[in-house]
Amino acid sequence: MEKIAESELVLNPDNSIYHLKLHPHQIANDIIVVGDPQRVKLISDKFDFIEFKVENREFVTHTGEYNGKKITVLGTGIGTDNIDIVLNELDALVNIDLESRTIKENKTSLNIVRIGTCGALQENIAVNDFIVSEYALGMDGLLNFYDHNFSKEENNLLEEFYNQTNYSQKLAQPYFIKSSEKLHNLFKDYCHTGITATASGFYGPQGRKLRINLKEPLINEKLQAFNVNNLRVNNFEMETSAIYGLSAILGHNACTVCVAIANRFTKKFSKDYHTPLNNLIDLVLLKLTE
Ligand code: R1P
Ligand code: URA
């Protein structure tokens, strides 16, 4: 079995994984990921008990039990670059033997649910509504660095996207990637469902102009109008495409649910998104453990 070199699979002196600083026994198979590290405590405060608390850089992890089931909540920080680290390191914790530095023969599949905030791109979605992402539209480019065969369905959506939007070839090549059906089914009755666009930034890449002119000033209008058999782009956030893409490649199940805190067309911003976020957290904890 080929040994993975020290420079490729980086471990700390105590043999924990480099950025997350976690050991394999410190994570559950069901993992909630959130962008804001402070949201981790908000969630783990609801656990029956917390067994491990580990922190390194912006990555905060709490593992404990909820409803008698082992569960982990992990703060990823913002962006798909952080997700590249989080997904590869979580996978290494379960599917690579860190002692021998070899890939395990029997693979473990994690359930990864992201609870986030987002900006809505359809006028009928009110601020504080819940949105589940059946598909991600990756505008960030991360997945282009990995070898992956997209499904026929995902490739068809991409072809339609180029046809309908006249999307600039100079930007990162976009891609569509599907959520785990099993996890999407847990949430779809409580949420708007559709496509979530993942951007590589909060401002220009999401069509926000403060002082700098934009190369794609109509990006929001193009996304709003995109429609394939009533499948539409509902929202913008910054992590889901990388979570879905890397999970699909590595054999994990992933799904994102978000609270819409802004609506980019009605120009509203939530006066208090903490209450709906708290309700969404309760829903996810219940559905993952019932
Ligand atoms: C931007 O404000 C951040 O909020 C959203 C975006 O994806 C990005 O991470 O999600 P979180 O609330 O989970 O951080
Ligand atoms: N998060 C985003 O990425 N965009 C928004 O508009 C709101 C939250």
From TrEMBL:
Chemical reaction(s) catalysed: uridine + phosphate = alpha-D-ribose 1-phosphate + uracil
Domain Nucleoside phosphorylase: 31-261
One term of GO molecular function: purine-nucleoside phosphorylase activity
GO cellular component, one term: cytosol
CDD domains given in the database record: UP_TbUP-like
Pfam families noted in UniProt: PNP_UDP_1 (PF01048)
InterPro entries the record matches: Nucleoside_phosphorylase_d, Nucleoside_phosphorylase_sf
Name of the top EC class for this enzyme: transferase
Superkingdom of origin organism: Bacteria
GO BP annotations listed: purine nucleoside catabolic process
Enzyme nomenclature, EC number: 2.4.2.3
Protein known as: Uridine phosphorylase
Organism (species): Vicingus serpentipes
